Amino acid sequence: MWISDVLTEADALCGGKNPPHVLAAFGRMALAEFQHRSVQSLVLAVKEGLCRKVYGALTWPQIAEWLSDHEAKVVALAEWEAAQHCFTGDNLGADYLDRLEYQSDGAKIKRQSEHIARLEAKLRTNKQPHEQ
Predict the structure, then answer these.
(1) Which pTM does this prediction carry?
(2) Residue 16 host element (H or E)
(3) Where does 1-132 have alpha helices with state H?
(4) How distant, in Å, are the alpha carbons of 26, 69, 118, 131 from that of 32?
């Protein structure tokens, strides 16, 4: 089983204190708990975990923490990427709804009507001195 090989190498780097049947049990637990993760993801989680301080022999809680932390990183990355592509009410700026309202057809028509009214008023005032 490939996970046993990965955990055997990790155990060897930590002093090789666990017997093979214990490492095999750790591997079975990892596959049962994190079966939705890919092989590469599990291997990467163990490698990242080994970069931390490891005291004594490897234990299941230690390995489970490594795998859970890696899972949290993957989920956080997925949530961040999803937030870049959808409106959640706060990621497009505080004035996003004001900008939408300003760009709406009703607002454009109102602005154009006001502009036309100003131009008509200007034309009326310009014609009056010439007519007298």
Answers:
(1) 0.59
(2) none
(3) 2-13, 20-33, 39-50, 60-83, 96-103, 105-131
(4) 10, 17, 74, 94
